[in-house]
Amino acid sequence: MRLTPFNVWARWLKRRLPTSLWGRSLLIIIIPVLIMQGAVTFVFFDAHWQTVTSRLSEGLAGDVAWAAESYQDDPTPENLALIVDRAQRNMQLSIAFQEDTKLPTEKRRGAIGVVDRTLEAALQSRLSQPFWFDTTRYPAYVDIRIQEADGVMRIIAPRERAVATQAHIFVLWLMIATALLLAVAVIFIRNQVRSIERLAEAAEAFGRGETVPRFKPHGAREVRAAATAFLEMRSRIQRHIDQRTAMLASVSHDLRTPLTRLRLELALAPPFKRAEAMRADMDEMEHMIDEYLAFARGEGGETPQTINVQEVLDRIASDARGAGAEVEVVVEPDLSITLRPMAFRRALGNLANNAASHGEHVRLSARHLPSGGVEFVVEDDGPGIPDDMHEEAFRPFSRLDPSRSQNRKGVGLGMAIARDVARGHGGDIILGRSDMGGLKASIRLPHGKD
Questions:
Q1: Burial 433-448 (b: 16+ CB within 10 A, else e)
Q2: Which of 105, 252, 282, 314 has the smallest set of CB atoms within 10 Å of its CB?
Q3: CA-to-CA distance for 170 and 256, rounded, in angstroms?
Q4: DSSP bridge pairs for 339
Q5: Euclidean distance between CA atoms 350 and 329, whole angstroms
C-alpha cells in the first residue's frame, strides 16, 4: 500500500494513543468535553463578550467626545469646571486639563489585544482630534488623553465602563463544572475498567493453574455476563481435568496390579535366558504409565511455592549426571521464583535428561530477564533438532529422526509435558541452536522474584 501523508499521520497518531481500555475511555470523555468547552468559550467571547465590550467602549467614547466637544465650544475655566462636575456626577468620569502639554509618544497595550482594539476603534469613530489611551497602568481604570489646542484633556474612566470585566467568572464556573463532570466520569469509568481487569486477572491466574477464591462478577451487565460465563467455563474445564485425572489414575492403578504380579512371578521364577529382557520391558512399561499419568494430570493441583533456583538446578543436574553426561550449572546469586515445584522439576528434568541422553556436555543456567521474569536454559553438545522441526518436537507422542528423539525410555511426552508446565506458569519454551553445538531449550517464566 502506498503511503500517503494522511496514512503517515494516522500511523504516527496511532502509535501515540493509549492502548489500554482505561486510557481510551478517558480520551473518549476528555476530548469531547475539551472540544465543547473550547467551542462554548469561543462562542461566548465572540458573540457575547466582544459585543458587550464593543458597546461599552462606544458608550464611553461618546461621553469622552461630549466632554471634548463641550470644551472646544467654550474653552474657558468656567466651562471646564462645569464639564468636570457633570462628567463626575453623571458619567463617573474624572477630568483634568493639562495646559501646554503634548500626548505621550509611547503606546501601552494590554495582554488581551481585543480590548485595546475595540476601545481604539470606538474613540476613532467619535473623536476628530488626536488621542492616546492606556488600559494597563491602573487595573480598575482606563486613562484617555485628548489633544486640545492649548493642552491635553485627561479623562480617567472606570474600567467596567469600557470592558465587560465579569467574563472571567463565566470561564471560571465553566472550568469548575467541567472538572466536576470529568471527576465523576473518571470515577465511573475506573469502576467499569476495574471489573474488566479483575476478569482478566482471574483468567490469567486460571491459565497458570491458580484460582482466585473471592472472584465474583462486577461491573456492567455485559461484563458480569462475561465473568459468569468465565466461571462456568472454569468449572467445566476443572471438572473435565478432574475426571480425566481420576480415570487415568484408575487405569494406572489397574495396570500396575498385573505389572506387580508379573514382577513378583519373575522374581520367584528360576533363572532363565530372557529374564533380564523381561525386567527391562516391565521397567519401560512402568515408566510409560508414569509418563502418561503425568501428562494427563499436569500437576495442576499443586500449590505454588517460592523455590531457590540454585538448589533446584543442582538436584536436576545430579539426576542428569546419572545418564553419563558432564553437567554444568550457572545461576545468578540468590535467584528465586514462585511456581509449582514438582511440576517445574519434572519439566526441567525432562529437558535435562533429554540433553544428557544425546550429548556429553550439558549446561543448566538461570538468569533474570529484563522484563522481570526468569529464564532457564538447558543446552547440550548433541546433534540438535532442525529448525523446521522445533514445533514437531512438542507434539505429544511425537518421535523425530533417530539422531535425536528416539529416547532410551519414554513415549515422546517429555517435551510436551515441559511445554505444558511452562505455559501453565504463564511462560513458554523456545528451542534454538546452542553455542555448544547442540540444542538450546529456554524456559521463560514471568514474575521472577529475588
A1: ebebebbbbbbbbeeb
A2: 105
A3: 86
A4: 305
A5: 16
User: Rounded CA gap, 312 and 295, in Å?
Assistant: 21
Q: Output the nine-digit C-alpha cell for 271.
A: 533363572
3-state SS, residue 329: strand
pTM above 0.70, yes or no: no
Q: What is the DSSP letter of 304?
A: P
Integer Cα distance of 399 and 397 in angstroms? 7
- Strand, helix or coil at 101? coil
The answer to whether the beta carbons of residues 336 and 408 sit under 8 Å apart is no
Report pLDDT digits (tens) over 147-191: 988 899 999 999 888 877 666 677 788 788 888 888 888 888 888
**Rounded alpha-carbon distances, angstroms, from residue 357 to 11, 24, 115, 237, 344:** 51, 53, 89, 36, 20
Q: Contact, 174 vs 118, CB < 8 A?
A: no
Alpha carbons 105 and 108: distance in angstroms, whole number: 10
Residue with grid cell 468465565, as numbered in its chain: 230
Output the CA–CA distances (angstroms, integers) from residue 394 to 80, 208, 413, 440, 445, in the order listed. 106, 19, 8, 14, 18
Residue type, 220: A
